[in-house]
Amino acid sequence: MEKIILEIKNSQEKLIKIVMSDMVKDGEYNKTTLQQITLKGELYWQAERIKNNQAHHSNISNADIEAWLIAELSHYRQINLVCNGTNITYFLKQNGKYRRLQAENKLAKPTSKAHNNVKNYILDEGENIPALIDLGVFNNEYKIIKSKYDKYKQINRFVEIVDDMFKDSGRDNITILDFGSGKSYLTFIIYYYFTVKKGINAKIIGYDLKADVVADCNAIAEKYGYDNLKFIVSDVAVDNLYNEKIDMVISLHACNTATDYALANAITRGVPYILSVPCCQHEVNSTISKGGDLDIMMRHGLIKERMSALLTDSIRAEVLEQYGYKVDMMEFVDFSHSPKNIMIRARLEGSGNRNLSNVKSLMSTYAFDQTLVKLLEK
Ligand SMILES: C[S@@+](CC[C@H](N)C(=O)[O-])C[C@H]1O[C@@H](n2cnc3c(N)ncnc32)[C@H](O)[C@@H]1O
After folding, report:
1. CA dihedral 342, 348, 349, 354 (to 10 degrees)
2. What pLDDT is attached to residue 41?
3. Which one-letter DSSP state was computed for residue 292?
4. pLDDT value of residue 156
5. φ, ψ (nearest 5 deg) of residue 194
């Protein structure tokens, strides 16, 4: 046991994770995984312990880790130190001694303890994020399933942007609503990122129309003990949504006007942060008529459709600015990963002029409907 602890100490720089498995008779958790993390500048060890298919997370300070390991290691017959470049496994023998095996580890990538500063670390392939296996994004070896690569790339980027936006707040809790959460890859990852990786107290609610998908997502959240991650069957255009203080509204490819309901909800409740990637902007395209200088863009269906989508998002940005948000329109992933790649990133900075005359003038010239404007006029 002392040899293992010494090896852990000596390998700390290249250590990616420690996996303890093959529980002895009197053990409580079937499997324990330990990873190093940094919380508020301090090194911690994050333990994920699995019992009855539920994951339980805790953070152990670096000062306490040796005592914790002495107590914990004795509950397992197999201790695996996954390091950058090597895989070291200790097997407990009948005589109470350990056999040590060492093998090359081609898969493992270097990890960083300072994950607050490191891009892409949160979703590194090979990281032990079990929910991603249930969601069909990772296979059992935590490798990305090929068909999910683009989605994975999108989520990865989205989470980075969420993190960039929120980290300046210095807060240790966050409440997020996700409009049109669907299969909820993004929702799960944001929850995992905040609660497991950053030790932030996150509460997230995902809304979606599809009852079966919502039930599946709730079952996965329950399986991993994600107590403050909930999914609710809801039509965001009609239903009453969570009415307490919200820090962030997100939507990723919420169809057509569902994005407008997300934005209107955030604006009317003064939600400080909004991240929204629209798609299927059909409303303007299906209602717009010729009537001014833009008529040239309505002669061909394809151009009309693209122009309408851009007009929709331009109006959304203008409305947000008029309601006090600082808005950036950004390509959040490369077009090759998703053609629906414009993200509206908005941060509340004041109360704004609340003057929608520019938008209304366009709407009256071209006689189109736009739900966000309509909702704010109510
Ligand atoms: C393209 S999927 C995106 C799902 C998820 N955000 C993602 O990126 O993987 C759009 C989701 O929005 C949901 N949706 C569309 N209109 C909605 C509405 N009015 N209320 C709630 N959900 C809605 C759909 O059911 C669908 O699951």
Report:
1. 90
2. 65
3. S
4. 86
5. -70, -50
Instruction: Give the domain ranges of the chain.
Output: 2-114, 130-377
Global pTM value: 0.75
Nearest CA to ligand 1 atom 18: 235
Q: How far is the CA of 176 from the centre of ligand 1 (A)?
A: 16
Q: DSSP class of residue 74? A: T
Confidence of residue 32 (pLDDT cuts 50, 70, 90): very high
- Domain covering 130-377 in this structure, CATH number: 3.40.50.150
Give the model's confidence band at 9: pLDDT under 50 very low, under 70 low, under 90 confident, else very high: confident
Distance CA 187, CA 205 (A): 8
DSSP annotation of 193: I
CA of 214 to the centre of ligand 1 (A): 11
| pLDDT exceeds cutoff 80 at 254 | yes
Atom 23, ligand 1: residue with shortest CA distance: 180
- Which SS3 state, helix, strand or coil, does residue 345 take? strand
